[in-house]
Amino acid sequence: MTKRAVKYWNVLSESSRNRWQAIDGTDGMIEQVTLSMDDKNGDYTRLTRFKAGADTTSFGRSCHDYPEEVFIVSGRLYDQTNRTWLEQGHYANRLPGEIHGPFLCEQECIVLEISTPSQA
Fold first, then answer.
1. What string of DSSP letters covers the chain?
2. Does the pTM exceed 0.90?
3. Is residue 117 over pLDDT 70?
4. Is domain 26-119 given the CATH code 2.60.120.10 in the classification?
């Protein structure tokens, strides 16, 4: 099984605004949209948008038992664990178990995430 095929669409256009979903517990400050998903193994690609002022401190640090790639599409985000500002163009391939976050956001930031739970 592979990720579902998707025709071209502009996820950042105003007409796609209704596809973004707020993440519970963030008061609408963080939202995401799944770009593709493999329903069988759970692998997915998504965008996460952190609005200016977003703070995930209440969620604590995070880690996964699967690899995860992230690419900063726009803006900047502070990773408190790694004490690093992630800015437009930054990329990371996080190995299983790598701790990251919580995150602080001073200006809107969009992150592309490619996660592969099938490799857990």
1. --PPP-----TTSGGGGGG-EEPTTSTTSEEEEEEEE-TTT--EEEEEEEPTT-B-GGG--B--SS-EEEEEEEEEEEETTTTEEEETT-EEEEPTT--B--EEEEEEEEEEEEE-GGG-
2. yes
3. yes
4. yes
